[in-house]
Amino acid sequence: MKENITVYIVDREGEKHELLAPTDMNMNVMELCKSYDLPVEGTCGGMAMCASCQCYLESEHDLAEQSDAELDMLDQAFFVEDNSRLGCQIDITEQIDNIVLRLAPEA
Questions:
Q1: Residues facing 91 on adjacent strands
Q2: What is the pLDDT of residues 53-71, one digit of tens each?
Q3: How far is 45 from 41, CA to CA, in rounded Å?
């Protein structure tokens, strides 16, 4: 098992950030972005209740099925696309190594 994976985040200015993410700390993408001081609010603390960590999946990764809570929140969010996901709902696991995500515009 890999101790760290790489997550690529494209910020709102179009700059691509390479983040090293530990797979053994039970973190999600929203928490990872915050730990690197990227502009992700995560107002609700990762409960899929605010959409302030919305991002767009830009790589061919096969993510887990979206929960009802995530779908309901995206239903109310701004700038939603077919590839929208909530960062707090994407767990840091080996399956997402080298994932590319773009931060959604702020509402």
A1: 28
A2: 999 999 999 999 999 999 9
A3: 9
pTM of the prediction?
Answer: 0.95
Tokens of 76: 């109310």
10 by Cβ neighbours in 10 Å (0-12 / 13-18 / 19+) ranks as middle
Give Rg (Cα) of the chain.
Answer: 13
Q: What is the C-alpha to C-alpha distance for residues 40 and 61, in angstroms, rounded to an integer?
A: 21
Is residue 9 within 8 Å of 38, Cβ to Cβ?
yes
Using alpha carbons only, give the angle 32, 7, 53 rounded to the nearest 5 degrees: 45
How far is the CA of 65 from the CAs of 35, 41, 68, 71, 89, in angstroms?
A: 25, 23, 9, 10, 10
